Amino acid sequence: MDIKYVGESLVPGQLGQFFVILTFGSALLSAISYYFAAQTRDEVASWKTIGRVSFWINALAVLGIGSCLYYIIYNHLFEYHYAWAHSSRSLPTHYIISSFWEGQEGSFWLWMFWQMVLGIVLLFRAKSWESPVMAVVMLCQAILASMLLGIEVFGERVGSSPFILLREAISDPVFELPNYLGMIADGTGLNPLLQNYWMVIHPPALFLGFASMVVPFAYAVAGLWQKRYKEWMTPGLPWALFAVMTLGAGIIMGSFWAYEALNFGGFWAWDPVENASIIPWFTLIAAVHVMVAYKNSGHSYFTATFLAMISFVLVIYASFLTRSGILGETSVHSFTDLGLFWQLIFFNAVFFVIMVWMLVAHKKNMPSTKHEEDIYSREFWLFIGALVLVIACVQIIATTSIPVFNAVFGTSVAPPVDPIQHFNKWQAGFAVIVALLSGFTQFMKYRRTNSRKFFIEVLSALAIAVVLSALTVWVTKVYTNLMYILLVFASSYALVANGRILIDAFRGKWKLAGASVAHIGFGLLLIGALVAAATNEVISVNQSGYIAVAGFDQVEQPGDNLFLTEGEPVQMGDYRITYVGDSVAPPNVYYKINYERIDEESGKVIESFELRPFAQNNPAMGGLIGTPDTRHYLTHDIYTLITAAQAETHALAAGESDGLSDLDEYEEPAVYEVNIGDTMRYRNGYMVVTGVNRDATIQNIPKGENDLFVGLQVTVHSADGETYETEPVFIIRDGNVYDFGKDVPEQGLKLRFTNIMPTRDKLELMVYQKPIPEKKWVVFKAIKFPFINFFWAGTIVMTVGFLLAIFRRNKEVKRQVR
Amino acid sequence: MKKSSIVGLIVIAVAIAMIIVIYTDSSTYSTFTEAKAKEAELYVVGVLNKEKDLYYEPTVDANHFSFYMYDNDSTECKVVFRGSKPQDIERSEQIVLTGKMVGDEFHASKILMKCPSKYNQDEVEIIEATSAQVATDAITTNGFTID
Lengths: 818, 147
Known about the structure:
The structure holds two protein chains of two kinds. Among the domains of chain A are: 1-190, no CATH class; 195-415, no CATH class; 666-769, no CATH class. Chain A has 21 helices and 24 strands. In chain A, the strands form five sheets. In chain A, strands 6, 7, 8, 9, 10 and 11 form a six-stranded antiparallel sheet that branches. In chain A, strands 15, 16, 17, 18, 19 and 20 form a six-stranded antiparallel sheet that branches. Chain A starts with 10 loop residues before the first helix and ends with a helix. Residues 543-557 and 655-661 of chain A have low confidence and may be disordered. By secondary structure, chain B is of the alpha+beta class. Chain B has two helices and eight strands, in the order H-E-H-E-E-E-E-E-E-E. Chain B has helices at 3-25, 32-38; strands at 27-30, 42-48, 65-71, 76-81, 94-102, 105-114, 124-130, 133-141. Chain B has a five-stranded mixed β-barrel with strand order 2-3-4-6-5. In chain B, strands 7-8 form a two-stranded antiparallel ribbon. In chain B, a hairpin with a 2-residue loop joins strand 5 and strand 6 (105-114). Chains A and B meet through helix 14, strand 3, helix 16, strand 11 and strand 24 of A and helix 1, strand 1, strand 2, strand 5 and strand 6 of B.
């Protein structure tokens, strides 16, 4: 039975679906055409032309998908599942962008979009490499596009379309009604954790990194395929550096988002999703180093090519881990399976097979050198450094892949109970070696180093590094652990050695600047990460420590969460903190927490600031979700997060009224029979009847001849000395009796003058009081992160270093072309 | 011996050490009964007992939260968590606890919840439309009931 649905706008979806199919078809055509163009070495010009034309069609189609999807989300077309599942009407416009890539389909689109942009650059810049490189890139584009197809092939659904309708995605009897659309209240909304401006820019940066990894892979394939073994590294190197730079920046942005917006209280948690993104970054960094070594010495060709290729395969493996649902309960934030499980495995397999096939088939022809590397040569130690990175990577892969092993072998091994400790134990060791290598290898020369000169330089740097690290260890207080000291020393050594090279760079050897700056950034980053992770302390410790709860007293240890009642200051470490109040800005509630530091002797407030962590009560996403607020200092940060709060304010934020009429807000009234001069008590003071006003007027109600308007003048004296004048009015109009009560909102009072009893010479006054409001409270957690700015600064410096290196290597490309 | 073979041997040695350590660090998904026997930190998977009350009184102790959970063998156990109550625990389909047994209580250091995913959520929130005016009451239905 066909139902004619009312009010659906199907055009954007159909158009979008058309673009999806066009994207897939044009990418496939482009890949095939470029393949033949490369096979024929561009002798048949028409293949290349078809490849280019279909690439441009593909580019337009990708933009078309994006526009349709954006139109759907922006206009709240909830007949589409994607808009319904990822946005809501109350979502601020700037976060519509985030809801765009909250779903897997949107993030696949993002990946395709960047790959398309990179394709345009390659089209203009790759020159003789265009055909083979674009053949690989467009193959990847075609596979990505297939993820969005959402059509059935031989009974199997291929891909998951972002343009699927809500009524097709979900079965609910409501869809039997033609006008169901009018009953869809709202979308389920964007996860509050993603409602952060870092979430607007972190995914694009990350996916630009992922997408650009395909380029070094494609160059490596092209180099082997076209037997231009030595040449590919020159144009491949700046691309590899670009990928390393953007992916690194993207990962750290994610870490900054986690720190600023997530409530797990840290910047790196070794979550499988985080690990998945850092694995290819490690291998590509190793690749960059070995590629440089090969270019300068002719050694390690196989390793360089292998690393450049495996990095992209690992990118695909990462997307398999995060998108297939295989991580299950081991990760807090991976996607659930969209039915793309086998398609993702296919994606992995294709590029893995290409890599293995290329490496095996061309192994014999690869350039190699007869003589061994000298131990006093830079290429030897670059190779060792790369090897250490690879081993570090293997460790991360091994632990992260435990769910994969479980799925393959049918076992049920659980990952380590404390992943942070488990990974840190290994990675700290690797970091020490890598930092030391990145220091002393800088004093090496290619092929052969003068060992005497080398040792003088190494030792003088060592001396400075010892002093610097002793100072750092003392200032940052990490002397409790040998590993911490070692890591600070190794990082300091990297800083000093590379600082030395940087001085040379300033003296005119500009070529060296990129590497030294990047390594300095790396050293800073390590120190920052170590100090912040090792010495962060929860400062909201419940200092009294004993809140007796029957049955638990024996294990009572001070907890991390502190209970605060509004207006009651609590001493917490150096600070006196007060929960001042809250303000509601739907859908969020902002809690004002005032921090004051007080000089012990004079009792004066030295420093005072207010943090406003906020929380959103989102039942669809799992209740109260807190977003921290952080006070940044040069040497440390103070991070504050609400972990629990009174529910009422949240009902207000959600725009719910409790539906009570005016009088229901008050307790049962007290009825008094009074005369002028009488005094009555109420909870917070007393009130006195001061007089009767026989000429009372009421706005908008004209007084007729026989009407009686009488006001009862009452003065309210509150306990804190304030007085309030008020005058409830009693009316007899056209023979009917009314009364107009008056509020004293400051005191939560309402007074009604309800009757005049001439026989008894009494006036009837009704006093309504509001119930005592429950004092507002919050439970919060505060953490101090010392020296975390080193971590962020290190990242920026490292990115600048990569950028300098890209410029340098790009010049080499131009020289080669000439 | 060639340098490359020395390097190779070191790599193999480190790799073996790594695998051993990963193996010893790895844990198992177990039950309350096993947790009682082992007294070590481990994972327990189970479901929340929704019949019994969750206890969290921040006014009394902001760092104490307790509830009852059934493990995969349907053994019930009281779970104590030193921290604030995870907000969505009532809706959880599955709970993965990290922690150890202390007496008859399981002291959890970490609670991981699996909530009904928003991706396969089959609930549509609909609003009741009364003539021209849209009623403010939103009702969530699984089976669609508009009266």
